Amino acid sequence: MQMNLNAKRIAVVGLGLSGLATVRFLLAQGVKPVLMDSRSKPAGLEQIATDKVDGIYLGEFDANRLAQMDMIIVSPGLAPSHPAIRFARAQGVEVLGDVELFARYNDKPVIAITGSNGKSTVTTLVAEMLQQSGINAVAAGNIGLPVLDAIRQQDAAVFVLELSSFQLDTTSSLHSRASCLLNVSADHLDRYSDMAAYTASKQRVYQHSALAVYNQADPLTYPGVTAADTTQLAISLQDADYGISIVKGEPWLNVAGEPLLPVSQLAITGSHNQFNALAAAALALSCGASRAAIARTLQQFDGLAHRCQLVRSDKGVRWINDSKATNIGATLAAIAGLRPSISGKLILIAGGDAKGADLTELQPVLTRDVNHVITLGQDGPAIAALHPHATEVKDLQSAVQQAAKMAKSGDMVLLSPACASLDMFKSYAERGELFAKAVKELKL
User: pTM, whole model, 2 decimals?
Assistant: First the structure.
């Protein structure tokens, strides 16, 4: 493969985190790639020595230049349907992503995880379960560490990859010891033609997988046509080999047909996180994790930032930061997981860029489980229209102040936007940090 790469004209299109990691990887192979980005000043480009590459082209993509390449390695953020990419592909140019390049070089076991929601939590849990079992697992992909930086870690024993639908779109030869599609809910419909196309992208995680782990409660996750030697495993919140059983009157996690630990000992809360814990256990066992390490991890891991994270508990009111809920499914999961623990009212702060999703899917749950909705952002008015008790505000600070006026002992205020953040913030992380800051500064 290295000889083939050295003989090819290769363009790296999109110079974000994964694009720059791709450039570093290619340079280490002795390849001089052409670099392209639609931005005039992509962050991090100064790290690349200009004499090591075969040209840097910023601004509008030159379709004719791309058509002269043998291979284009495209950023996940750039749709393969972009006209310049489509034109190059029509001329016979191979188009792939960094995960596909990783797959062609990697010789270590892989666990591949996707889903509309929960994939970062499950990826982190699996890596931690393996590490606590004495196995050097490296979490990479959509979780933050680019796969082509991860592959250069010579002491890695297992790669645990969080994969987005965008990454899966340009991946065809990734072989995995185990794979999982956690759930499918409306997301990125500004990029995909419909839910069927989005679901098909997610289903690609099952390609070339020895074990396909899926969600018994979500038919969209069921593996379709898989290889004859692929084992399928369902995760459930019912009494099942991987599910919830009652032991001496108390709910326990069942792992591989045997009780592992009481649900009450999980450090993460909510039924959605019970499911995440079971999925992570199944995946970790496939690469040699011990039951003791799995149990220990679940007793210690208290969640990731901006994912149903307790920010403040004061005078009986709990304030929860779930800014990572950038789609409808994530917000529905948060409400379903948290509502049983709330004795009083649930006050939801939501809104932002819905990315073309049908927000009316929220209405039944908002009507049944949410007492008041406070909305902001581009699609805030559309969410406000779904609830009889809704308040529209101009910014997050106003949303927090409005919630503080309403909340009483026993209530919960939940930031779970059901929308992307980029209409008002740099990222979901900035949105979550500003929410937490505003909550902590409240004089209750």
Answer: 0.83
